[in-house]
Design a protein that fits this description.
Blueprint lengths: L7 H21 L31 H22 L2 H8 L1 H34 L6 H9 L10 H19 L3 H10 L3 H22 L5 E4 L2 E4 L3 H15 L13 H4 L1 H24 L4 H32 L5 H8 L1 H18 L7 H23 L3 H6 L1
Antiparallel strand pairs: 1-2
GO molecular function: acyltransferase activity, transferring groups other than amino-acyl groups
Organism: Dyella marensis
Keywords: Acyltransferase, Membrane, Transferase, Transmembrane, Transmembrane helix
Length: about 400
């Protein structure tokens, strides 16, 4: 998640995506369709997605979580790709690989080995586990997998980065050539390319696996059908970032940026279409028409994802080119906030379980507390030179 060269709009966008991640994880405890607390040893490990489930429910959470889930991780891979080719050109392959291992591999091991157990301790307690570290670690070590929480993003991004480094070693001009090609395209063509390639890989993937299925090996978790989709977004990010940010689609005066309002109107319309198709799919009988509705839902998913990603990219390029100290501080600490936030989310959700508060107030307290605590903790850690190199 290298942030060099600096670009205020892209830095703000990167933090905004992490803001959505915090909001997403905050609302899961108050989701109206959240499952009841599952046993810690449940084979499906449902508690890894819903470590804390509150009896207070927030109906609006279903819409926010559903909308987020369509695009926010794809946008994270897109934004992360922006900085890859400039870093490869500046550092060279060997130095780039070393930097990626330091900034992604090491944090992933720390997150899986320390932060994830801390974050899932409330799940142990709410599922009937006894207090104390020995009892929890005994239950943790009996698991057939090692949940890493949101850190799954890091190892997938590391893998994509290694592939990009391999491509650079073989064809050092490939990224720039792809970037020049994308820079010449109208926003509608960019959308068509992004949505078209996404549809190709996603429909192929969902033909063989359940769209909601996760693959796990030790701490390495990933949603199988979405890996090719994320790869497409990462590749587009690499291409868009391969040329100077002042030119092409990432310029503040680009056609994409100037049409931000069109994309922002289109994003909720595309998501509304997706929801309508999903509701229809839920009501149809299991017959020949079911396949057609599933394909329609998959196509609507990739269209909604592409529109939302381009809408937020255009919005930030056009309207968030400058920022004060607050925005700059949040952007500088965004990576650490992402790494640390899940611990604060689950513990605050757990501590508020028995409080007689409406779900909206609980969610607001969890979100604000998580943002402030993870922000402050990251800022303090960055005062240590060794931590600053990673965060």
């Amino acid at each position: 998640m290298t942030a060099t060269p600096r670009n205020a709009a892209l830095d703000r966008l990167r933090f905004f995506v992490i803001f959505l991640v915090l909001l997403h994880h905050t609302l899961l405890a108050y989701h109206p369709y959240a499952p009841p607390p599952a046993p810690f040893s449940a084979p499906a490990l449902l508690w890894t997605a819903f470590p804390v489930v509150d009896s207070a429910r927030l109906p609006a959470a279903a819409w926010i979580v559903g909308f987020n889930d369509v695009f926010f991780m794809a946008l994270m891979f897109l934004v992360s790709g922006f900085f890859v080719w400039p870093a490869l050109s500046r550092r060279g392959v060997a130095d780039f690989v070393g930097e990626r291992l330091l900034r992604l591999g090491l944090p992933f091991m720390l997150a899986a080995g320390v932060l994830a157990p801390l974050a899932y301790y409330p799940a142990w307690r709410t599922s009937g586990g006894g207090p104390g570290l020995p009892a929890f670690m005994n239950g943790w070590m009996r698991l057939t997998v090692w949940p890493a929480g949101p850190a799954w993003f890091l190892w997938v991004l590391l893998a994509f980065g290694m592939l990009a480094a391999g491509l650079y070693a073989i064809a050092p001009k490939a990224g720039t050539a792809f970037g020049r090609f994308l820079a010449c395209q109208r926003p509608s063509v960019l959308f068509g390319l992004l949505a078209g390639m996404s549809a190709l890989v996603y429909l192929l993937a969902t033909h063989f696996v359940d769209p909601m299925a996760w693959l796990s090996f030790g701490p390495f978790f990933v949603q199988i059908a979405r890996v090719p989709l994320y790869a497409v977004y990462f590749a587009f990010g690499v291409g868009l970032g391969a040329i100077a940010f002042e030119r092409g689609a990432l310029a503040a005066d680009s056609t994409l940026a100037r049409s931000w309002w069109v994309w922002m109107i289109a994003a909720p319309l595309a998501y509304g279409t997706l929801v309508a198709i999903q509701l229809q799919l839920a009501t149809v009988q299991q017959d020949a028409s079911t396949v057609a509705w599933r394909i329609a839902a998959d196509l609507a998913f990739v269209v909604s994802c592409a529109v939302s990603c381009l809408a937020l990219l255009a919005l930030f390029l056009r309207l968030f080119r400058r920022g004060g100290w607050l925005g700059a501080s949040l952007s500088r600490n965004a990576y650490g906030i992402y790494l640390l936030h899940y611990v604060f989310v689950t513990w605050l959700q757990w501590k508020l379980l028995d409080q007689p508060l409406p779900a909206l107030e609980k969610a607001a307290l969890v979100f604000a507390g998580t943002l402030l605590l993870s922000w402050l903790t990251t800022a303090l850690l960055r005062l240590i030179p060794a931590c600053a190199r990673v965060l």
